[in-house]
Amino acid sequence: MNENKNNQSHFMTAQEVSDYLRIPLNSVYYLTQKGDIQAVKIGKHWRYVKEDIDSIFPSRRTKMKGEHRQFPRINSDISCQIHLPLHSTIIKTTKIKNLSCGGALLCGDDLTVHNNRPTCDDPLDLHFSLEEEERINRTYHIKTRVVRVEKTGRYLIAVKFRGLRNIERSILAEYIG
Questions:
Q1: Domain with 15 in it: what CATH number?
Q2: How far apart are the first and last CA of the chain?
Q3: For 80-124, what is each residue's pLDDT tens digit?
């Protein structure tokens, strides 16, 4: 029996589904036994139809093809100052590790002053400079909102820009590329 190679590519082993979805092999078997993923058992082996996997997880196809973020981002190492309006005396210097037109990821050793540190939904003012054409530095003062705080040795704070003017957004977009 000579199968067409195009037909063979539609069937996947459990290991191939695991690699494709980037989940553990045991999770593939668990989802199969629960009935969340359709499969056919041939002897002691499970076979999956690729189109079924794609129909169960439709967002997976679009996310894997290219940039899935609303705003592309770049890795950076930009010094910045943060100010917490809720705690008017707190001003700290930290680094912007990722920058996009929609927000930034800040990284610092200790962002605690007088037992206060940023928490989710806190407003935060961000001050930083970018070197632009002809070595001109443009300073930004952007109002943000904290959307995530993690402490993994260092503080990581994800912020979303608020009230960014179109001209600032277009300059950032040009800087990011």
A1: 1.10.1660
A2: 53
A3: 888 877 766 556 788 889 888 889 998 887 666 556 677 888 888
The domain that holds 95 is classified in CATH as 2.40.10.220
Q: How far apart are CA 40 and CA 12, in angstroms?
A: 11
Q: What is the pLDDT of residue 54?
A: 80
81 within 8 A of 93, measured Cβ to Cβ: yes
DSSP annotation of 85:
G
For 121, the domain range is: 73-176
**Number of structural domains in the chain:** 2
Domain check: are 39 and 100 in the same one?
no
**β-bridge partners, 95:** 79, 107
Measured between alpha carbons, how far is 30 from 115 in angstroms, rounded to an integer? Answer: 45
Per residue in 120-169, pLDDT tens?
888 888 888 887 665 567 788 899 998 988 877 778 888 999 888 888 88
58 and 112 within one domain:
no
CB atoms within 10 A of CB 149: 17
